[in-house]
Amino acid sequence: MLYAILCYAHEETVFAWSKEEEDSVMAKLIEVQTPYAQAGKLGPVGRLMPTTAATTVRKGKEEPLVLDGPFAETKEVLLGFYTLDVETLEEAVAFSKALSAVNPGSSSYEIRPFYVFHPGEIKNSETKT
């Protein structure tokens, strides 16, 4: 089963990390990810830019409205996601718990099964490792 693991946190905290803090957190997260990647169970992983970089297209009465920002009234925002191909929800929960253990501050991980409607191919020149 494919699972999307959606990562929520306080973006003002995450985007305020120093380079050293960022590098430390990423190294710990990669330690959690590596066994899943080596087993062929980890799909694309992405971090979203801050909500200040967001654009929202909202259905209008006549035409869609294009707005700056997500206009979410919440302290925690969606900061990124993992895609995981595991047999059970329990495996996805274990992966999320391991991520949570090494991710500082308050964060939450929402786990949702999903289906691929169109696999597509994206070639991103700004991919980070």
How would you describe what is shown here?
This protein has three helices and six strands. The chain is α+β, with helices and mostly antiparallel strands and 129 residues long. The chain has a single domain (2-113), classed as Dimeric alpha+beta barrel (Alpha-Beta Plaits, 2-Layer Sandwich), CATH 3.30.70. The strands form two sheets. Strands 2-5-1-6 form a four-stranded antiparallel β-sheet. It has a two-stranded antiparallel sheet with strand order 3-4. Helix 2 (19-38) runs antiparallel to helix 3 (89-102). The mean pLDDT is 86.
Short structural summary:
Belongs to the YciI family. Helix content is 29%, strand content 29%.
Features:
129 residues, alpha+beta, Alpha-Beta Plaits, 4-stranded antiparallel sheet, two-stranded antiparallel sheet, 3 helices, 29% strand
Per-chain topology:
Blueprint lengths: L1 E8 L1 H4 L4 H20 L3 E6 L7 E4 L6 E4 L8 E9 L3 H14 L4 E7 L16
Antiparallel strand pairs: 1-5, 1-6, 2-5, 3-4
Helix pairs in contact: 2-3
